[in-house]
Amino acid sequence: MSFQTIIIILLFAAAIIYVGRMLYRSLYVKKGCGSNCKCGVDFSDIDTPKPRT
């Protein structure tokens, strides 16, 4: 094999691994995002003020 063919095969393999990793991370996400956006917080115990009538 020539040097150029080996480079192309390595780049193609790296691209396949990158796309596979992105697909895996999009399908198997954690429960919360971990970026302090409060998307995994349970707000069921918080009392909401009642509107005045």
Structural class: mainly alpha
CA-CA gap between termini: 82 Å
Q: What is the tally of beta strands?
A: 0
Note poorly predicted spans. Answer: none
What percent of residues adopt helix (DSSP H or I)?
40-55%
Number of helices: 1
Radius of gyration: 24 Å
Mean pLDDT metric: 81
- The run of helices and strands is H
The quaternary state of the protein chains shown equals: single chain
Largest sheet: none
* Dominant shape: rod-shaped
Q: DSSP strand (E) fraction?
A: under 5%
Describe this structure in words.
This protein is mostly helical and 53 residues long. The chain is 47% helix and 0% strand. The chain has a domain at 1-27. Pfam families: FeoB_associated (PF12669). The chain crosses the membrane at residues 6-24. Keywords: Membrane, Transmembrane, Transmembrane helix. This is FeoB-associated Cys-rich membrane protein.
Quick structural summary:
The protein has 53 residues and is an all-alpha fold. It has one helix and no strands.
Name its key features.
53 residues, mainly alpha, 1 helix, rod-shaped, transmembrane helix, FeoB-associated Cys-rich membrane protein, transmembrane, membrane
Describe the secondary structure blueprint for this structure.
Layout: H1 3-27
